[in-house]
DNA sequence: ATAGAATGGTAAACTGATTAACCAAGATGT
DNA sequence: ACATCTTGGTTAATCAGTTTACCATTCTAT
């Protein structure tokens, strides 16, 4: 941004113009100024350094002195100002969760579970969690680096991004603590924690094959996502033996992770291969879209076509039919992510790459292959 | 908490014990210390006060000087440290969203939509958003007040609470900016923004009545929630004329806002009143639970019984059958909430009580009453 | 008995901004 | 021509903590 410098509202709150008269006296309700560390020091008859050391549990201070100071702190209801603490200290004890710009990303139960886990554990470790949407403007204004430069946070989680989001590399290259959650970036080797998508996909396809399904369609998520690629590769590897040389790719359609495109993808698959007896989807939303589409076409699930999802979001148990799916322990993944990011920040880890196991959850949307069922 | 003072880890990060030797030299990667306002001042040949005034767009500074300072700031890539800004300034420009302790509250699409709206608008106004779960320990340790006392935030949104959560009053009584979102607290008159539940319920019941339904069941949410009470009251008022003196209450069952209890409640209703031709639920999750339960019992929706939900969560369009429901503009409500809370903080508002209109969304789960249909 | 090391604490220099009080120089009023 | 405003900026105090030297004691060890 060369040009004139007339813009650049670094501190937008102040751009309010003059406030119209009306004798503003923003004094606190307590008569004297807020109670600070110096007041405590004075009351306890020690120096502020001592109080500070008590706050930080520095072993240098005697039990007796510590008690006396704690007593005063409790009496006057003192609580250290975290802005001052962070300003001089090394850490802010804040973490940010970076989410992609999808209009309603937070509304997605997928993110929700993750977020719950992250928040709970972060709180337990004394950290606060900031939510940030990585909109284009945000990135353009270097918002992601500002998060660190202006000392908002000590580290960030990134959830739901892919290799096209180059700005993540900026953070890593700046040497800032960053942890990808449920995403892998082989090219930049970012720290990450993920669910075992390969294992889940393997279990899923094995299960369908055991039910007698041979012609299985895959509705995969957007190919930019590493997890989507893993599911696709696993699917292909396992189905190849059953396809008599037909290209595996013709059994796969992109569902872009949404109900809507999942529905479309499903219809596309059925048109290409009317003999398909099972559909495996890369997430539950696409699976539900597929069920919806087929039901509307008069195709019964699972009697005519079985459907198997991935993720096990909350709703999957309450749809009609309820959805068989691969459970990804997203809450636990969030917990683990928080734990690991904090370790990275404290310098106790420098390469994180953990994998959490997934498991099959069988419900009503899958059954024995329709073409081999004796009726 | 009288007792001994041996606990009280006010700053848990430090409780790490000594760090094992290994010459720690935590200098930044740039050779000199991080660039601050003084460096900028020196380079621009002005005082720090001037730089500060440029940052804050104080009109006192000449265009020429401003430009010169901005130039330097850009050249050296200066960005003000927000901890220092907040420490001396009056605001932190942070807001917290307080959520109830429900294990997966964030995972609920209801909260998700709201959160999206809040975050987007807050970011646009230069505020960051903190997420906080109001667990029992959190409250017990006065975490909600600490949020202000330790200067974490300027104000809080509270989402999904009810009058049993007395701690909300603490915040209000401490004179701290607080805004209830989609909840009303008549007794404590907290600031709030809500969707028009009464209006929505009225439209819903009117619609069902117009379809010929007379015996309608209500699955309402937990009675602690004001919105649930509003729906119930509206429902009763409108149904009374059609009940021939039967008590309205026998047509209502608590579904506790979840799929599971919604399903149970629905079965309970059908048992009490086999003649019911429509079920109205206080939220979509309960409605979906009801659909699920009935489908399992072989009761067709909407051919035998119509189902109408409330909220219009994303999934409702993709269930089988898709759900007719009352749309609550949760995203917009979030946006409005952010706008209002910031106004409260700046002192431009002191009583907020806004209502956003709701509207009926007709899909597949409702049809003309089965007992009057000519077939 | 006494040098040397622990022990327990303090004073003062940071952290990086905001802001109230003040001041010099040029514009204005009489 | 002289006192009085404005303008545009500066100086220094302040926000509320942390941390590094440094200083008295008291405790060991010789």
Task: Write a structural description.
The structure is a homodimer of 375-residue chains. The N terminus of chain A is likely disordered. Chain A has 375 residues and is of the alpha/beta class. In chain A, strand 3, helix 8 and strand 4 form a beta-alpha-beta unit. In chain A, strands 2-1-3-4-5-11 form a six-stranded parallel β-sheet, sandwiched between helices. In chain A, strands 7-6-8-9-10-12 form a six-stranded mixed β-sheet, with helices on both faces. At the A-B interface, helix 3, helix 4, helix 5, strand 2 and helix 12 of A face helix 3, helix 4, helix 5, strand 2 and helix 12 of B. Strand 2 of chain A pairs antiparallel with strand 2 of chain B, so a sheet runs across the interface. Chain B binds a DNA duplex (30 and 30 nucleotides) through helix 2 and helix 4.
Please work out how many helical segments of chain A DSSP would assign: 13
Q: Say how many strands of chain A there are.
A: 12
Largest sheet of chain A: 6 strands, parallel
Percentage beta strand of chain A: 5-15%
Helix residue percentage of chain A: 25-40%
First-residue to last-residue Cα separation of chain A = 72 Å
| SSE class of chain A | alpha/beta
- Poorly predicted ranges of chain A: 1-10, 12-31
The greatest inter-chain interface is formed by: A-B, 85 and 85 residues
**Secondary-structure element pattern of chain A, one letter each:** HHHHEHEHHEHEEHEHEHEHEEHEE
Shape of chain A: elongated
What is the assembly state of the chains in this entry?
homodimer
Mean pLDDT over the full residue set of chain A = 88
Strand order of the largest sheet of chain A: 2-1-3-4-5-11
Question: What is the CA-atom radius of gyration of chain A, in angstroms?
Answer: 27 Å
